[in-house]
Amino acid sequence: MRRGLALEVAGRDVTSVAVTGARTVRRQPAVALVERLRGARLGEAGRIGKFLLVPLDDGAETLVIHLRMSGQLLLTAPGWPLAKHTHAVLGLSDGRELRFVDPRTFGELFVAAAPPGGPGAPPGRPAALAHLGPDPLSPGWSAAVLGRGLIGRTARLKLLLMDQRFVAGIGNIYSDEALFEARLRFDRPAGSLSGDEIGRLHRAVRKTLRDAVTHRGSSLRDAQYVDLFGAPGDYQNRHRVYGREGEPCTRCGGPVRRISLGGRSTFLCETCQP
Ligand SMILES: [Zn+2]
């Protein structure tokens, strides 16, 4: 999604703004967001974890977008019928519209001050996102940083990986896929990993996220995640455990199991992830 925004909307001006969703803008009055966006020039999108950051004008402020469970950003011709649950529409200077659609309304938009990232650099981190841990694809997230963070932690490994304060950007699908790649069980106490296991986990998280980006993300049967043009991703066809209960493990041929953890499903191969 970030790549799509950077390719398609960077350099466009916002010519009109309409916010109709009552929950879509909730950190500030919707009228303030509308006023700030109208006439603004959109810069090249950045990302920290699951938050998209679109710099405005000189980059001192940024439009922050979180899609949460069901949000979609769609780039359309102006005449297209509005999809149900369209909560915000930005008219762009190239005549197209950037629309925010979100049936479950957990997603949000807000404008925040951002330390400038410098010419050509992605925007800095707004104060509202200060609680987020490092993005695992950022250069600073090394195996040593991961290892230091794990010391003394008793939480189950999967839950810590999904804790956005620990590392930002990993959810239910990519934690399962990364733990399979690393050959680690989801419920290992996080502080119990050996140096070799920490190295495997670090490589696995980065490989999984990079591959997922290359294959344009995972679109499940609910088809909630689609790209700017409404097209689904392709990574779901490459999942090795997530959503594959009962199917053969790609490594050992044994069955992939599903276990309920904290009300959500965890998928693993118990042979390969002892
Ligand atoms: Zn296996």
Notes on the structure:
Strands 1-6-7-5 form a four-stranded antiparallel beta sheet, with helices on one face. A four-stranded antiparallel beta sheet has the order 2-3-4-8, with helices on one face. A two-stranded antiparallel ribbon has the order 9-10. It is globular, with a radius of gyration of 20 Å. By secondary structure, it is α+β, with helices and mostly antiparallel strands. The chain has two domains: 2-129, MutM-like, N-terminal (N-terminal domain of MutM-like DNA repair proteins, Alpha-Beta Barrel); 143-268, Helicase, Ruva Protein, domain 3. It is 22% helix and 20% strand. It has six helices and ten strands. The model has no long low-confidence stretch (mean pLDDT 94). The structure holds zinc ion. Zinc ion is lined by residues 249, 251-252, 254, 269, 271-272. Zinc ion (ZN) binds at residues 249, 251-252, 254, 269, 271-272.
Number of helices: 6
Q: Name the average pLDDT.
A: 94
CATH class of the largest domain: Alpha Beta
Give the CATH architecture of the largest domain.
Alpha-Beta Barrel
The major β-sheet equals: 4 strands, antiparallel
Can you tell me the overall shape?
A: globular
Structural class: alpha+beta
Secondary-structure element sequence? HEHEEEEEEEHHHHEE
Would you count the extended β strands for me?
10
How helical, in percent, are the residues?
10-25%
Could you give the distance between the termini?
A: 35 Å
How many structural domains in the coordinates? 2
Q: Could you state the oligomeric state of the chains shown?
A: single chain
Assigned CATH superfamily of the largest domain: MutM-like, N-terminal
Hey, roughly how much beta strand do the residues contain?
A: 15-25%
Question: Runs with pLDDT <50, length 5+?
Answer: none
